[in-house]
Design brief:
5 helices, alpha+beta, binds flavin mononucleotide
Length: about 170
């Protein structure tokens, strides 16, 4: 686990190979096992492996173009009627997908959807909702792109970490 955490980076370039069914199932099982407040599991996941739909989703905003080259886009949804802390729960599941990808030798990246604009009059959430036919009661939090990595990045080094952000006992002492 520490190895994964210490070397993890966001990967945005992917080989063209698709993932086999077993790998996709292992990824999704890890996400479904995520902790959630009161064990309510307010999430839903749309697994997109269709190239045409991936291309449509890649247009959702500037920082999503690489989704076009991904093997998968996993769209993270949550139902606020199930849990008041749906953002935390869905974000933990998304993070677990990102880390599990790393552990399976895959590259992945978080694409922010919630609170982002597609155009002046349409949010990224609305765009994803109409592209995938997602019901109105579900919020769209993010998309995790996944694929076999076609770039390698050095792990972050200690001097980048901001150790001054850690406080012992009292703030700023
Ligand atoms: C909440 C959140 C939103 C992010 N949104 C995007 C995004 O929309 N597009 C993107 O390319 N990367 C996105 N990222 C990835 C960050 O850019 C990345 O984690 C950061 O630059 C640090 O790089 P690293 O993950 O390689 O350490 C997001 C990450 C988080 C945690």
């Amino acid at each position: 686990m520490l190895d994964i955490l210490y070397r993890r980076r966001s990967i945005r370039k992917y080989k063209s190979a698709k993932l086999d069914v077993d790998t996709v199932q292992r990824l999704l099982k890890a996400a479904l096992l995520s902790p959630s407040s009161r064990g309510l599991r307010p999430w839903q996941f749309v697994v997109v492996d269709d190239n045409e739909i991936l291309t449509q989703l890649a247009s959702v905003k500037k920082g999503a173009g690489f989704l076009k080259g991904a093997a998968l886009g996993i769209v993270i949804l949550a139902d606020p009627a199930i849990s008041d802390v749906w953002i935390e729960d869905a974000s933990i599941a998304a993070t677990i997908l990102h880390l599990t990808s790393e552990s399976l030798g895959l590259g992945s990246c978080w694409i922010q959807i919630r609170e982002r604009q597609f155009t002046e009059t349409e949010t990224c959430e609305q765009y994803v909702r109409r592209t995938l036919g997602i019901p109105e009661n579900l919020k769209v939090v993010s998309i995790i792109s996944v694929g076999y990595p076609d770039e390698s990045k050095s792990p972050h080094i200690d001097s980048e970490l901001g150790l001054d952000k850690v406080h012992l006992n009292m703030f700023n002492q």
